[in-house]
Amino acid sequence: MSKILSINQSTQESRKSSKYDDYIAYITTAGLKPDILELLRQRHPLDYEDWQYAMNRSNNYKITPESITEYLKTTRLPPMFHNAVHTDWPKKVWEKAFAAQSLFLCGKPGTGKTHLAASILMETFLQYNPKPYFNESRGQWSTTKLLAPLFVTIPRLLVKFRSTFKDEDLTEADILNEYCQPRLTVFDDMGSEKISDWSLQMLYLIIDYRYTNLLPTILTSNLTLEEIGTTISDRIASRIAGMCEIIAMKGDDRRIKRRP
């Protein structure tokens, strides 16, 4: 945790409380609906204090070891990758990967595909800063919350689908809904096992949904995109090509290098 906190500590500084003029400027440029904007201007004494409280929460936001632990638990990222950070990568590789809306990381085993995906999950958390927004349903200002990314291996995902045959309380729709949410999701190790036609259809539905709804997605595989099209599904390969920046990971097996 210390490495992660030390990288981030310079980005989390408190600011001065905002004044009423700042509030008017904020709501004017916040892209609010005209009727909401006019309502806020009319109710300014109450809403200004509400907004100022939300702004102070945002400005004084800090990352703690406890919040990191909770975040990592929510993402389901394996403990092996909990210390992955952007400084583990050459600058050009990192900038290309982190700037992409979606990624397809391919390469031989041990070249760092999962590690790079994990670094992106951690940096997503470190760079996030909550901002005030007007909650129309509650009629008050709140602060945004990070919808934590999700990590799953393709073999584990397929096991979950197959478990629906025996579990009456779990359906294919439940799993599809979980992995079609608008959060960054990592699908690790595609192509590592034979996929049945039924499982392939479930996987296609997830990838197609994320493709058509422009949802941020990272996929890793030991196979090239061409090999996925040949051995798994040309429809899935086409969707990946359409939504992802492709980065081919090269080099020797990092796991073997670390062995004594």
Offer a quick outline of the entry:
The protein is 50% helix and 12% strand.
Number-wise, the strands total: 7
CATH fold title of the largest domain: Rossmann fold
CATH superfamily of the largest domain: P-loop containing nucleotide triphosphate hydrolases
Can you summarize the main beta sheet?
Answer: 5 strands, parallel
CATH architecture annotation of the largest domain: 3-Layer(aba) Sandwich
Structural class by secondary-structure content: alpha/beta
Distance separating the two termini: 25 Å
Q: What is the C-level CATH assignment of the largest domain?
A: Alpha Beta
Gross geometry = globular
Helix fraction, binned, reads: 40-55%
Range of strand content: 5-15%
Query: Quick check: average pLDDT?
Result: 89
Spatial ordering of strands, largest sheet: 4-5-6-1-7
Low-confidence stretches: 10-16
Radius of gyration: 22 Å
Can you tell me about this structure?
With 260 residues, this protein is an alpha/beta fold. The chain contains 13 helices and 7 strands. The strands form 2 sheets. Strands 4-5-6-1-7 form a 5-stranded parallel beta sheet, sandwiched between helices. The chain has a two-stranded antiparallel sheet with strand order 2-3. The two termini are 25 Å apart. Residues 10-16 have low confidence and may be disordered.
